[in-house]
Amino acid sequence: MKYEIVNLKTVTNEDEKLGGLTFIEAERDIPFAIKRIYCIYKTEENQHRGFHAHKKNWQLLFCPYGVIDIIITDGEEKRVVTLDHPSKGLVLYPGLWREMIWKQDDSVLCVAASEYYDSEEYIRSYDEYLQYRKEVGNDAEADTNTFEGGGWITSRK
Predict the structure, then answer these.
(1) C-alpha distances in Å from residue 62, one per residue of 43, 91, 131, 143
(2) pLDDT surpassing 80 at residue 151
(3) Which of 79, 111, 151, 153 is deepest in the core (most CB within 10 A)?
(4) pLDDT at 139
(5) CA-based nearest residue to 6, from 154, 156, 148, 155
(6) What is the DSSP string of 58-93?
(7) Are 2 and 144 in contact (CB under 8 A)?
(8) 134: part of which helix (H) or strand (E)?
(9) In whole angstroms, how large is the CA radius of gyration of the chain?
(10) If 0-12 CB within 10 Å is exposed, 13-18 middle and 19+ buried, where does residue 63 land?
(11) CA–CA gap between residue 113 and residue 60 (Å, rounded)
(12) CA distances from 134 to 11, 124, 157 (A)
């Protein structure tokens, strides 16, 4: 199962009233160029969202405010990653099923995506997802990058 937990660059001010700043540089901090950014907000605690996978879309998920659990699976393994600090990011490789659970009212989920919106690129049924994984096998994650020693290394499974 291919995903990375990354530390996002974060600057905090000595004066707490001035807040903090978290930033991301595409193709430096994450292994893709950003084509789309969106945020999900005004969501209540215990709200479940997601329930889909992407065939070719890479994503960076981070939570600048609140706490959100991200459940990811490749159809065999299942992991839960808690996004609970603005400096914590989750890079999802193509071919992973994801579900999100808001653990705190008004938590904000920000997503940077490698692809423009394309409804054909989504898999929205878990049964179809399992069939997709069966048909493509490891090719669902064929073009991958890994973070090693401060830089992204391109590799092929």
Answers:
(1) 15, 9, 29, 23
(2) no
(3) 111
(4) 61
(5) 148
(6) -EEEEEEES-EEEEEESSS-EEEEEE-STTEEEEEP
(7) yes
(8) helix 126-136
(9) 16
(10) buried
(11) 7
(12) 44, 16, 17
Confidence of residue 147 (pLDDT cuts 50, 70, 90): very low
Give me the amino acid identity at 88. Answer: K
37 to 14, 47, 68, 73: CA distances (angstroms): 29, 21, 18, 23
Question: pTM of the entire structure?
Answer: 0.84
Whether residue 70 contacts residue 44, with contact meaning beta carbons closer than 8 Å, is answered with: no
For 26, the token pair is 């595409």
State how far Cα 149 lies from the chain centre: 21
Q: Please indicate whether residue 85 is annotated as part of the active site.
A: no
Environment class of residue 67 by beta-carbon count within 10 Å: exposed (0-12), middle (13-18) or buried (19+)? Answer: middle
Tens-digit pLDDT profile for residues 74-112? 999 999 999 999 999 999 999 999 999 999 999 999 999
The whole-number average pLDDT for the span 6-32 is 90
Supply the pLDDT for residue 148.
42
Structure tokens at 51: 């329930």
Q: Which of 48, 52, 54, 85 is catalytic?
A: 52
> What pLDDT is stored for residue 98 in this prediction?
98
